[in-house]
Design brief:
single chain, MetI-like fold, MetI-like, transmembrane, transmembrane helix
Length: about 350
């Protein structure tokens, strides 16, 4: 009898988990298709003519019409979008009008730079953001708490592109603490063998310590600028969650038993906000992938953000759609991963 009940319970949990997984996959597909459809319509409202980009400004009328037909722009928008989805299902993102290369290869070349920048900024923001939130919750209303609130306010209020320009002016042009825009100086950028696409790893594998130090000198300033954005969000949301938990009855009981403030914070309160922390970290990382658009443009960082900016100014529809799909897919996947981790780590969600 007990084994039968256990098998029935396992079957229910299995089908429940399978249903949640199927629902997540369907939601992911619907979200990405909706994002592509919205971007596809907006890209066709641009005043830039993609036919002239391919054929040239002095092309004859017959050449213009032939190129327009070859690009499929003489078809209705729903037909064009359906054809794009058909090519997308085969792994074909189209050809960029700017680089004349497949968009998939362009994204494979630029995405490691964005991942490297966003990951380092995420580490910076998580370390300092969690530390500030814990210090603020340790002594609410103190100088540390006011400092955490000030950092959160500045991180949300100051535009990232303005902070980047100010950082370049101060640390590059005046103090010379930063190596400036780009990933490497020209003396190394053409001699380094790109094995992984991550400049820190490739410069380390090259065995040249000067190249590695130069990569760090180029990287630290955009990492700090972009990391301020994530640090502000992590500090504000985690501080609010910690202070909310500190008013619960189990915290009052722990204080009545004589537990110290640090022990209560780290061993009682912090484990109960792990679900919130996981969600905040995932959303912050996804925000960094989006926020890298402006940061990469300011620092001439050759990532997806700069690639997308160039495509937007040139109305390069395949590049715009490919970049949007990549960034949107990362955002949705990270959000889904955060929900799954929260479900596993927090029994209350189950």
């Amino acid at each position: 009898m007990a084994s039968t009940l256990a098998e029935a319970g396992f079957a229910r949990r299995f089908w429940r988990s399978g249903g949640r997984l199927l629902t997540s996959i369907l939601s992911l597909l619907v979200t990405l298709i909706g994002l592509l459809a919205f971007t596809f319509m907006l890209s066709h409202l641009s005043p830039v003519d993609p036919v002239l980009q391919v054929a040239g400004d002095h092309a004859s009328e017959s050449t213009y019409q032939q190129v327009r037909h070859d690009l499929g722009l003489d078809q209705p928008l729903p037909v064009q979008f359906w054809r794009y989805l058909e090519h997308l299902a085969r792994g074909d993102l189209g050809i960029s009008h700017i680089t004349n290369q497949p968009v998939l290869s362009d994204l494979a070349r630029t995405f490691p730079a964005t991942i490297e920048l966003a990951s380092c900024a995420m580490i910076f923001g998580a370390v300092f953001g969690i530390t500030l939130a814990l210090l603020a919750a340790w002594k609410p209303g103190s100088v540390l708490d006011n400092l955490a609130r000030l950092v959160s306010l500045l991180g949300y209020s100051v535009p990232v592109f303005w902070l980047g320009l100010l950082g370049l002016l101060l640390f590059y042009a005046v103090l010379h603490w930063s190596a400036g825009p780009g990933r490497l100086d020209d003396i190394w950028i053409y001699t380094m063998e790109p094995k992984t696409g991550f400049v820190l790893i490739d410069s380390w594998l090259s065995g040249d310590p000067e190249m590695f130090r130069n990569a760090l000198a180029h990287l630290w300033l955009p990492v700090v600028v972009l990391g301020m954005l994530s640090m502000a969000g992590i500090t504000r949301l985690l501080r609010a969650a910690l202070l909310e938990e500190s008013n619960k009855e189990y915290v009052t009981l722990a204080r009545a038993k004589g537990a110290g403030r640090v022990r209560i914070l780290l061993l009682h309160i912090f484990p109960n906000v792990l679900g919130t922390l996981i969600t905040v970290l995932a959303l912050s990382y996804a925000t960094l992938l989006e926020g890298s658009v402006l940061t990469e443009t300011v620092f001439a960082w050759p990532g997806v953000g700069r690639y997308l900016t160039t495509a937007l100014f040139s109305s390069d529809v395949p590049a715009i759609l490919g970049s949007t799909l990549l960034i949107g897919g990362c955002f949705v996947l990270l959000n889904t991963l955060a929900d799954a981790l929260t479900y596993l780590t927090d029994p209350r969600t189950r």
